[in-house]
């Protein structure tokens, strides 16, 4: 039986595509949105995460962890799982209503020959290639992109730059896509965001701005650039650190021992506390330090 033919589960929501929730054969909370199956997979550390699959050809209560692939982010609990699934359903419904058109294409792109494309609107086309992809805007469409974000030639790769297209033409994107685009612009191009919207992003609102603040605050601190669990000092992580986390020829490096229970890299790096993390000069687990210095 194809996934699209599965009968509705007792816990289901109306709409197209509809959403069904259930339980897998191995006890996972699962859901079906159109042809896409989702599961709340258990992690080794006990925190669940979201996984997905496409067109599972068996009933929901026969699904198992082996049917799913990928890792689509951590989940706090079942309520978070349901929220993510319903968000995806909303996204699929809106995308269907937008009427995007799939076309055959062999156009040349910065990422190789196009293997197919999706037309969002006249002059707004998203190309797929063997290894990457992204949007191309016509000259007229590209002129409407803010100068701080505009790419000469109108090509916008799919990892981050797609968000520039969504910011410029929000009516061509779903609410979910617009939220993702806003987050991406704030994280990657905070100065442009602040100029365009006449605002100042606060701490926690932009990864790039937060990293700048971190680097400024810790410019003279020892920041770990490499770490390895020590086999010579049980319960410790052997760390190589440099001033401000800098790298390159001529940069001073020191080794420190950090208790394993304390070592958490964090978003931008682990800062050594010289008052608690002692300088280490003993046997090393780093190959480059086994002769007394980094190779």
- Major β-sheet annotation: 5 strands, antiparallel
User: What's the structural domain tally?
Assistant: 3
Q: Helices and strands: which structural class? A: alpha+beta
Give the strand tally.
15
Which series of helices and strands comes N to C?
A: EEEEEHEEEEEEHEHHHHEEE
User: How many angstroms separate the termini?
Assistant: 60 Å
- How does the overall form come out from the CA principal axes? globular
* Low-confidence parts: 1-10
Q: Portion of residues in helices?
A: 10-25%
Would you tell me the overall average pLDDT?
A: 91
Which value, in Å, is the CA radius of gyration? Answer: 25 Å
**In percent, how much strand structure appears in the residues?**
15-25%
Strand arrangement across the biggest beta sheet: 1-2-3-4-5
Please work out how many helical segments DSSP would assign.
6
List the helices and strands and how they pair.
Layout: E1 11-13, E2 19-23, E3 29-33, E4 36-41, E5 49-54, H1 78-98, E6 101-103, E7 108-109, E8 112-113, E9 116-121, E10 124-128, E11 133-137, H2 139-142, E12 155-157, H3 162-168, H4 175-188, H5 190-197, H6 207-217, E13 222-229, E14 236-243, E15 254-259
Antiparallel strand pairs: 1-2, 2-3, 3-4, 4-5, 6-9, 7-8, 9-10, 10-11, 11-12, 13-14, 14-15
């Amino acid at each position: 039986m194809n996934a699209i033919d599965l009968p509705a589960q007792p816990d289901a929501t109306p709409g197209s595509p509809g959403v069904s929730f259930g339980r897998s054969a191995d006890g996972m909370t699962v859901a079906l949105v159109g042809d896409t199956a989702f599961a709340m997979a258990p992690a080794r550390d006990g925190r669940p995460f979201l996984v997905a699959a496409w067109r599972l050809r068996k009933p929901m209560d026969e699904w198992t962890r082996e049917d799913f692939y990928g890792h689509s982010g951590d989940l706090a609990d079942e309520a978070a799982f349901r929220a993510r699934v319903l968000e995806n359903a909303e996204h699929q419904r809106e995308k269907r209503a937008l009427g995007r058109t799939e076309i055959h294409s062999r156009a040349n792109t910065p990422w190789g020959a196009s293997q197919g494309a999706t037309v969002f609107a006249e002059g707004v086309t998203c190309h797929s290639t063997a290894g990457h992809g992204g949007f191309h805007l016509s000259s007229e469409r590209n002129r409407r992109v803010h100068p701080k974000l505009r790419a000469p030639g109108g090509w916008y790769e799919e990892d981050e730059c797609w968000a520039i297209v969504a910011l410029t033409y929000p009516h061509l994107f779903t609410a979910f896509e617009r939220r993702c685009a806003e987050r991406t612009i704030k994280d990657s191009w905070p100065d442009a965001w602040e100029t365009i919207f006449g605002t100042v992003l606060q701490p926690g609102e932009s990864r790039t701005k937060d990293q700048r603040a971190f680097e400024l605050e810790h410019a003279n601190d020892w920041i770990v650039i490499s770490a390895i669990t020590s086999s010579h000092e049980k319960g410790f992580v052997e760390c190589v650190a440099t001033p401000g986390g800098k790298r390159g020829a001529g940069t001073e490096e020191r080794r420190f021992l950090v208790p394993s229970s304390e070592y958490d890299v964090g978003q931008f790096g682990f800062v050594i506390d010289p008052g608690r993390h002692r300088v280490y000069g003993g046997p090393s687990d780093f190959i480059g330090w086994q002769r007394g210095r980094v190779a």
